[in-house]
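User: Can you help me understand a structure? I only have the sequence.
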Amino acid sequence: MLQTSPSDGGISAPLSNAAAAQALALTAFALALAPLAVRLARVVHPGRNVFFARWGFSHVALALLLSAAALATAGPLAQALDLAPLDTLHTLALQCALLLPTVALIVALAGQLDPDGWRSLGLRGAGSGTAIVSGLIGYVCAVPGLLGLQILARFAIEHSGLEFKVQALADYASGLAGAELALFAVLAVVVAPLIEELLFRSFLQPLLVQNLGDRGGVLVTALLFAAAHANLASFFPIFALGIVLGATMLRTQRLAAPVVVHAVHNGLTLLLVASTPG
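Assistant: Let's start by predicting it. Here is the structure, written out as tokens:
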């Protein structure tokens, strides 16, 4: 959900048909692993924790509008404050700070509308350990598919006559080091996953599941999650990641599980970007 302006750099050489074939194989391998991942996850964290959301679509719409306003305000505010030369880093920090009122709103609404208060958002300690392991099992099995989808998306973009460009955040992170990289890592690996999972998996998904069923709720939440990142090249991998995160939350009802999986994914992505020569 954290965004920056598009980058004009980072243009890479086109992918070959062989690379696309390998990506298809990776994606098919991940799909073949899916039943095994589900079975293992159920063994590690047995039982389904059914949850009924007591808030409505008007409450979710208010949280989403507040989030959109925060994201739209961060960029112009960073420019107005003349935060160069770390515009992107400061913009990310501003986005996280401006999203705190959304977090407060969600926690307050849960406290008012649900007898269990803020714990209804999945903020429970008991059972979080097995929930996290369950989610990580699903993520590990999905990694080949996430990589395959990323390659296929790039291949499709290039062969549609469009120019593939490295995502702005990835291009920016590759040039960071020292304290700047550490701050970026905290924002991308710790703060952003917590805020995004609270909004999407804790607050939005339960309501969609109640109205669309388990699969429909998880899929629509993942679709909105991918759309919020506003990047064509990474849309389908983020959508697939959203399904893993949503399925984890649906089964465990422990926010720690999707947050840790999301953090691991962002951390591995950042590590790969930071270790790749620019």
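Now, to help you interpret it: The CA atoms of residues 12 and 175 lie 17 Å apart. Residues 22-44+113-275 form one domain. Let me know which part you'd like to focus on.
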